[in-house]
Sequence to fold (444 residues):
Amino acid sequence: MKPAPFSYHLPTSIEQAVALLAELAPEDGRILAGGQSLVPTMAFRMARPAHLIDINAIGELARLEVRADAVRIGACVRHAVFENDIEPGPTGALLRKVAGNIAHYPVRTRGTFCGSIANADPASEWCCVMVGLDGIVELRSVRGTRRVPAAEFYKGVMTTTLQEDELLVAAELPLLQPGTRTGFIEFSRRKGDFAIVMVLVAYRLENGRMVDARVAVGGAEPYARRIAEAEAVLNGQVPGIDVFGEAAGAAAAAVDPMEDNNNSASYRRGLVRALTQRSLEGAK
Amino acid sequence: MTQRHEITLTINGTKYMVNVEPRHTLVDVIRDECGQTGTHIGCEHGICGACTVLVDGEPVRSCLMFAVQAQGCKIRTVEGLQQGDQLHPLQEAFMRHHALQCGFCTPGFLMLAVGVLEKRLDIEEEELIDILSSNLCRCTGYQNIIKAVRVAAAEMKVRA
Fold:
């Protein structure tokens, strides 16, 4: 089908964009970035925004900055950018591993990192990365700027603390320590489909023992989150099949999986266990 | 009163001045306003890849982009592949290796493959299969498409 009529706005600065948003959000105005989720829902007429505020002409939002301790990802940075290491350390390597799982290449050339984290689909890979790496979202409105940790940003399926007049201008990911091993695996029945479950893991070694362990699960619950029970199993231990299995079991026990027509809660729970184990075994 | 915009689209080097509603997708305008009907419309929600075109060198789903967003971009469609009487190596290879039957998905596959091969002629087999999985074909079973793209890549290397 064809999208319903709307008015189109093309601001060239963040100030213009948030002013437009403040004015038009109450009249069902929405932000358009990559459009790879919004435009299909408009084609189905599940979304019929009266105004679209296209942020693609705001040069500042296309910027990706690698700083000494964090990566700052502007609202218009596309998924495909991460298919090459954006920095030489473990963060760049992890983001590359993740990027290849997102939809298909012609979607990754348009879709944006920040659009994905604002859309907050439970199966969004970048949402899982944001919580796994303790990312921060920067929200701008005419009222000011808010910086919200990813762990506090998500509230439910496609539901966040983003207010209707706020523009998600950037995401920041703290860089992982040098030497951190990372793993990311997702499962879907066909390449490019939405993941049923995904697991991100990271840890580094100090005196042969795991520290700063991270286990984040996406797709299983309404929004991605770190699983403290599984991380507690790993911290302080020597890496090995048995402790990985124990952590995988802890993750599976800790999640409260969603159900749908094709995937029962116990199936998703089984996937959490299997993917946690495999990501830990394959982490490098 | 529906808002309309005067825009100029550059398709295969030719400029088209068109008057569009914001809701008109790029593929609809390429076909209906610019008359370039080589690009096909399949699912209209970004799943099938039939409408794949190159925008500033990158393959995109032209059903998921509004035409107003393509103002100032360089758009390439299947009509731009042939040079005079000379088919593009991908078109030759698709014919010779039976990489199409009904032909509906073919323009999308060709533009996807052109977009990738122009940047990376030495793409690995596994990654090529991964990228070609972006688009749907209901006739060929994909094997001949993969084969044709491989052959075309070799030919493009020789000509490069």
